[in-house]
Structure formats: structure tokens, C-alpha cells
Design a protein that fits this description.
Chains A, B, C, D, E, F, G, H, I, J, K, L: This is Dodecin domain-containing protein. Twelve copies of one chain form a homododecamer. Chain A contains one helix and three strands, in the order E-H-E-E. Chain A has 71 residues and is α+β, with helices and mostly antiparallel strands. The termini of chain A are close together.
Amino acid sequence: MAVVKVIELVGDSPNSWEDAVQNACREAARTVRNITGVEVLNWTGNVGPDGRIDEYKANVQVAFRVDEHRS
Amino acid sequence: MAVVKVIELVGDSPNSWEDAVQNACREAARTVRNITGVEVLNWTGNVGPDGRIDEYKANVQVAFRVDEHRS
Amino acid sequence: MAVVKVIELVGDSPNSWEDAVQNACREAARTVRNITGVEVLNWTGNVGPDGRIDEYKANVQVAFRVDEHRS
Amino acid sequence: MAVVKVIELVGDSPNSWEDAVQNACREAARTVRNITGVEVLNWTGNVGPDGRIDEYKANVQVAFRVDEHRS
Amino acid sequence: MAVVKVIELVGDSPNSWEDAVQNACREAARTVRNITGVEVLNWTGNVGPDGRIDEYKANVQVAFRVDEHRS
Amino acid sequence: MAVVKVIELVGDSPNSWEDAVQNACREAARTVRNITGVEVLNWTGNVGPDGRIDEYKANVQVAFRVDEHRS
Amino acid sequence: MAVVKVIELVGDSPNSWEDAVQNACREAARTVRNITGVEVLNWTGNVGPDGRIDEYKANVQVAFRVDEHRS
Amino acid sequence: MAVVKVIELVGDSPNSWEDAVQNACREAARTVRNITGVEVLNWTGNVGPDGRIDEYKANVQVAFRVDEHRS
Amino acid sequence: MAVVKVIELVGDSPNSWEDAVQNACREAARTVRNITGVEVLNWTGNVGPDGRIDEYKANVQVAFRVDEHRS
Amino acid sequence: MAVVKVIELVGDSPNSWEDAVQNACREAARTVRNITGVEVLNWTGNVGPDGRIDEYKANVQVAFRVDEHRS
Amino acid sequence: MAVVKVIELVGDSPNSWEDAVQNACREAARTVRNITGVEVLNWTGNVGPDGRIDEYKANVQVAFRVDEHRS
Amino acid sequence: MAVVKVIELVGDSPNSWEDAVQNACREAARTVRNITGVEVLNWTGNVGPDGRIDEYKANVQVAFRVDEHRS
């Protein structure tokens, strides 16, 4: 039996949306073990006056196993 | 880089829906720092036999920064 | 065993959205007993030419127990 | 025949969510005529460090008639 | 005033979907007190080559009171 | 021509979710004739302190023919 | 103050989807007064072996005023 | 590169839902060029006391190219 | 036991949306047997410069029985 | 690289919803290989005059690998 | 008080989805000032006969402040 | 008249989400002709213990014309 817990984070990056998701996963890995997967809920961005996207942001859910050792 | 975490709470109040949301945010502020925002997911209420709303309840998501100090 | 029935109403009020929901619940209490709760599905309003909201409207679901006495 | 146009706005207020919706409708009334109604899509807020909501925000759709005079 | 917190888990079981939800609730009860309710968000399963479901999985939200003792 | 009406109920049972849906259908059959079908909208449950589900609840829509005899 | 009640019906017709909606509204008018509007939730149909649609069906919500006479 | 803009309108007609959508598109064509397509978001109608639909209404999104000439 | 399979198609017609759905069903009947029903997921259309709808399109799901003969 | 295809089926059973899902998966396994998982989209049922559920039905998506052998 | 307006656009690009979103924002910046953010609603693409994506398209909402100067 | 069929696939790639979508389209092009477009339904990924995304996955719908040659 392996119960998984799901937490929601918002990652951001000045470079790309993939990088924003990666940052959210990396941050999650600092505080929880046994991460298994990520799902993107929403893509947003901050936009400067000239229309250039200067901050990529992604709402994600990160899943991690919580009770691997218990049968 | 500023990763944000999102938690879900249900606040309640005998007075109003705005108060219910405020109670949820105040409770969150007791246990987490750097709260940035709130989004209301759902408005419900308990209703007495005479049809009077005697408890206002609100499902909310509260967002807070988790890693401000790390570049 | 307590089966609950759910009906949908639209309440309105010239004063506020909370009052509109309260009116819907009060009207429901005129025709059904054992009301337990209310959930707001949608908030709308009529707006006058100057942009002032002159009628607050709320689509709600009202729940009430229908068979309390039967085990 | 009366065709209606729908625009989306985000209103805000330091006081309440109803006030935030009212501000959005008032702003719309500055630039368009024949406003008929408003629908709230989403309620959010900015929250200070102590958990107090210091800015109420509402995504709304405002509808207005565009061709009343044409049969 | 009773604020409730909501966490998301994925339970699994080789036996049935109800058992998968029960496992998620039991795991939650190991780490949090005052659990009040569960809502199922999604039912999935792993399927073997012969089409037999060999793992029942359920995404659930578990709610628990966080501040019962405070008025 | 056969017009069908749809009502919403919440059934519950201490035994299982299927039993909860069955209770809602049985209750509907006490007050309406020509029931044709049921659709489950939502599965929830009450959970005791030890994480055991002690009440299974299901929001359902029940459909029944209202005017079979009229061509 | 005018509270509106909303009921859900499924109309059908061998001729067209508009006729199916019209049949549902006509059936509603047999049992309730002060109907104000209809909203279509879903369009389905029965299809014969040759691919011809032989029954048009529409899930609709019909709204009617319930308390006109009360201020 | 061809950026498309999307506006939302509500068309109406005493005759049919297709006519209501057509009226919304025709109205859009009065004020914008390069219309490419329409999507129906919602079908509603006004209903008279006898249950007859006397006004067909359709929420639509109309898309039109805004910058065809720019590479 | 009768398992049903569901496929998704987009039908189109220069005449009407009902015709577009009918075309999708007729096309499905060319390649599969035992069609039972159709559900419309989405209504769109191509629009000419004058705002006239010149192509009606409908996303539909068509259902057909796949294993009638097996108990 | 492993691309997965997703098909939609409706399984049914006179016994239970789990059995209905199992029947859909078993039927899928008759015509496709490398099935990996199932997701339930919707639970419905046929109901007899006495309110007893006499047919359990489940809309499901079944996923299967289509190109395992290609890197 | 700062009311924000939201418009919907579809950007495209032969290179990538991020570029498609950037093109939509750049086009918006040609006609409106004070752009604050973008949200992606939908990712689609045109695909050539060999399966190669030859046009990346993104439905986006762009938000911009409309009345900053008015208190 | 051109009827379009829609199939659902899950593509994956160790490199990027765009590559995952491209792989799904390329796999579709192996078995069907006249592909016209792709829509992304969902972005997920497998994540290693260090939080690095090691597999990008995308649920997509691929559309292709099925009856071009028939008027």
C-alpha cells in the first residue's frame, strides 16, 4: 500500500515556463522526499509595458509517497 | 526566484462571508509567514429552520512565499 | 438514514448579495421543513446606466432533510 | 433585436468585495453606455503578513446593449 | 469559530475503491487530528494485460479542524 | 413524447457508497413514479478520529418520466 | 423582492432540438406558473442503425417566479 | 504571424437559436473586419406564460484577425 | 452485459448545426455498427467577412454497442 | 519513448459499479494489448419502479501503450 | 483603486508555444498601455501530414490597468 | 463536407513538453492520414528524488479528416 500526498505550489522563472515548473519541483524536493510526479494546473506570466513576458509562472501540483515502508 | 505554496482552508463566521474568509486568513497567518493572497473557491452556509443563515462558510486557497531568501 | 433533497433558487435584493441569499433561504423555509444548508452557485446583478448595482442576485442550492423519521 | 456585448474587468477595493464589483461597474460605465448586468467570475484578495485582507479583488463580466436602435 | 484545513491524498488498494479511500483516510489520521470528512475527486486504477484491475486508486481531499480550542 | 424531470438528492449509509445511492433512489421512489435513472454527482463521507469512514454520502440526480401518457 | 425557482427537465422530439426544448417548457407550463426563462444544459440524441438521428433530447433548466405577490 | 482577437456577445432572435447566433455575428461584422469564426458558449431563452419560447438568446465568442498585414 | 464504445467526431454543414451533427452520425455509421446515441460537445462555425455563418461545425461523441452477443 | 492511446467505453453490470468498470476493461483487453490504466469519468445507473438500481453503468477511459517496441 | 481590463487573443508562431504567447502579448502592447499579465487558456497547433507541428497557437487573456490615475 | 475524427494520446519525452506533444503527433501520423491539428489537454511529468523532471508527458487530442474524398 502506498499513499501519496499532493501539495500545490507556484513556481516562477525569468527564462521559460518549463523552468518555472522545474523551480517549483526543486523547491518541493527541499522539504519532502519520494516525489513521484507533477501536474501543471495553470500557466500565467508578468508582462512588461512593451508586451515582453518578464516572469513565467506555473501553478503545479507535486505528488510524493508518504508511507512506502508500511505494507 | 520566489516559489509560492498554496494551502486550502474552510473559514466560518456567524456574521458574514467576508468575515469567514478573514478568519481563514488569520488562522493561516498563525502557522505560516509571507502570506500573499487568498482566492475563494466556494461559499456555503448552515441554515436554521426559519431559513436564517446562522453560519457563513467559505472554502479558500491561501498563498504564501516559501523561499524568498534563496536566489 | 437521512436523505437530503436539494432545490435551486435565485434570490435577489436591492441591498447586498448576502441579503439576496438570505431571501432565497427564507422563501425556501416557507414551503419546506428541515433546511440544513445553502451553497451559492453564482453571483449576478442588474446595473443601472451610471454603473450602480441596483439589484443583487444569487443562484443558490438549498438542502433539506426529507426522511428524518425513517431509520 | 438587441445584441449585447460582454467585457471582462477586475475591480478592487480596500473595503469589501461588493465595493470591488461596484468599482468595476462604475469604471465600465465611464466608457460604455446601456450597461445591463454584471456577473462575478472570481473573488480574490491581497493579504498582509498578519492575515488581514487589505485589498478585495473581483473578476467580473459586464454586459451592455450595443444596437438597441436597430430593429 | 472552527477553521478547517483540507489536504489532498491518493489512496490505493488491491481490493476495492472504497478500501483505497479508507487507506488514504487512515494514513491522514496518522499525522493529523480532528478529521471531519473526505471527498473523492477522482477514481483511477492500474490494469493488467488481461484487463483485470489490479490496483484501485482514489484522489481524495481530507478535511480536519485546526483551531477547535480557540473561540 | 416523454418529458423527464430531474431532482437532486443526497443519500447516505453507514455501509457503502452504493448503499448510499440506493437509499437516495428508494427515497425518491416513495414520492415519484416512473423513475428511469440515476447519476452520481459527488462522493463524500464523514470520518471518525481514527480515520475510519463512518458515513458514506452521495449527491445524486434521479430522473423520472412526467408525461408518458400524453403523445 | 422576486425569488425564482429552477427545475431541471429533459425534453425530446422526433423533429429538432428546438422542438425538444419547447416540449420541455410546455410540459413545465402545465404544472408551474410565472415561467421566465430556459437554459439548455446538454444536447443529446438517439441514433438509428443508419446513423439517422431519430430522437432529439435536451437537458434544460426552467426558471419561474415563486413569490411575486409578496413585497 | 496572425494574431486573432476574441470578443463575447449575446445575440437574440424571436425565430431560432441559429438566427440569434447569426444576429450576433452580423452585429460584430458592423464594427470589426476579418471575422474568422464563432463559438457558442451558452443557449438560453425567454419563455412566455404558456411555456412558448418567445426569445432565443445565445452567448457567443467571435474571433477576428487583427494583424494580418504584419509578418 | 453490453459494453458501449464512444468516439469523437466533428461534423460540418453549410446548412445548419443539426445537419452538421447528422453528417457526423452518418459518417460514423459508415464504419461502425450498433450506434445508439450522440452527444454534442461544442458548436462552432466559420464566418465570412459580412458576418454570415458559411460553415456550421459540431464536436460530437457517438456511442455504439461493441459486444452485444456476449453475455 | 512510449506513446499511450486513450479510448472511451461505457461498461455495465447488474451487480456493482466496480464490476461495470471491470467489464469495460475486460472488453478493451479483447481488442487492444498493453493496457496500463483506467479512469472513471462518470457513474450512472438504470433504476426500476421501486427505486432499486438494476443496472450499474460507468463511463471510463482506458489507456494502452501503442509503440513500446520503438525507442 | 486600479481597475484592470481583460481581453482575449490567440497568438501563433511557427517556432514554439512560448513564442506564440509572446506574439499575442506584443500585439496587445501595440494597442493598449499598462499591460500587467497574461494567462494561457488553451494550447493548440496545426499539424502537417507527417505529424510535424507547423504552427503553435495559444488562446490567452491579457490584463491591463485602465484607470490608474483616478483614486 | 469534411468530417473530422478526434483521438486521444499521451506523448512523452525526456527533453521537453513540446517534444512530448510532437512525439504523440508523430505516432498518430504512423497510423492515420490527413492529420489537421492537435490540442493539449494536460501537462504532467515524472520527477526524480532531487526534484528534477526526468519525463515530460502531455495528454493531447489529435484531429484528422476522415472523408475528404466524399462530397
